[in-house]
């Protein structure tokens, strides 16, 4: 596993006007797996541009403005049983640049059905502090860090 690289990725904590964040349920796994929108960086792409592109691709809208970011890249390792299977089998985990964004649109603009192969099949607004308990265990330390970094934004 140590010989595999980390996949470079961006993540979005998208806050609504009430200070809740958008969390979405993955469509590609059998379990009830929830997460924040995130996705890979294209070659030469700036993370700030990538996070808005990923929002548009995954939730159908990029009507948001960046209001914060975690200063360093955060990492997680896949559990041993997923190495060689998840993330195309090419990565040991992900190295992520996380951003907080304020949603500038309306809930009706959030569309998971625009992609012919959607990553998510449901979404909802959730309290930031509740996120670590909702995600798969191997992502939990990253989400705990996001709660610490972005909790001051939950009161918007």
Automatic annotation (TrEMBL):
It comes from the Bacteria. The keyword Transmembrane does not apply. The keyword NAD does not apply. Its cofactor is Mg(2+); a divalent metal cation; Mn(2+). Residues 5-148 form the Nudix hydrolase domain. A motif (Nudix box) lies at residues 39-60. One of its GO terms (molecular function) is bis(5'-adenosyl)-pentaphosphatase activity. GO terms for biological process: nucleoside phosphate metabolic process; ribose phosphate metabolic process. Gene3D superfamilies: Nucleoside Triphosphate Pyrophosphohydrolase (3.90.79.10). Keywords: Hydrolase. Its EC number is 3.6.1.-. PROSITE patterns: NUDIX, NUDIX_BOX. NCBIfam families: PRK00714.1-3 (NF001936), PRK00714.1-5 (NF001938). Accelerates the degradation of transcripts by removing pyrophosphate from the 5'-end of triphosphorylated RNA, leading to a more labile monophosphorylated state that can stimulate subsequent ribonuclease cleavage. Belongs to the Nudix hydrolase family. RppH subfamily. HAMAP family: Nudix_RppH. This is RNA pyrophosphohydrolase. The lineage of its organism: Bacteria, Pseudomonadati, Pseudomonadota, Alphaproteobacteria, Acetobacterales.
